[in-house]
Amino acid sequence: MYLIVGLGNPEPQYSNTKHNMGFDVINKISKKYDISVAKQKFQGLYGTGEIQNNKVILLKPQTYMNESGRSIVQAQNFFKVEIKDIIIIYDDVDISVGTIRIRENGSPNTHNGMKSVVQHLGTQEFSRIRVGIGQPNKDIADYVLEQISKKERVELDYGIDKAVEAVEEILANGVASSMNKYN
Questions:
Q1: How much is the pTM?
Q2: Least enclosed by CB within 10 Å: which of 24, 54, 74, 148?
Q3: Catalytic residue at 19?
Q4: Residue 90, H or E segment
Q5: Over the stretch 7-54, which tens digit does the pLDDT of each residue have?
Q6: Cα–Cα dist 176/149, whole Å
Q7: Residue closest to 143 by CA, chosen among 154, 131, 151, 135
Q8: By the 8 A CB rule, do 106 and 175 touch?
Q9: How far is 180 from 177, CA to CA, in rounded Å?
């Protein structure tokens, strides 16, 4: 069983922002595999289903980005998901728009949502898919929370699609295979 988590902010005013790339990827997976992510529990919205012959839980924490770990650890404990079977998807300003990076573990760097995840899970040893949103030419907080233009949406959607494919590859053939294919 895999716990696939997209990081983002729950309020409607954040739905079309770069900081919600994790939610956007979960929404795309949800639609593609007809997995409703509407159940409320674990301080989040979740749904269960099957992808690549694996049972999955899709989770969108509703705690706001900086407290995402609280929701994730609750779902992990309830479903008894092993750390190695957790995949966290989030935005990254250090990666070019339309590009993704997959890692089996690592530091949260400056991403406050990932700092919360590491703190609450008590480890950095879980998979993550970083969706590139590009370098800001302004304050990072302003950049990640500004509304996405139509032109930017096209470029960001390319990265979102690649992230969905990366999740599918992880579920079918493992993290190493997905890293080789998409990094």
A1: 0.96
A2: 54
A3: yes
A4: strand 86-92
A5: 999 988 999 999 999 999 999 999 999 999 999 999 999 999 999 999
A6: 34
A7: 135
A8: no
A9: 5
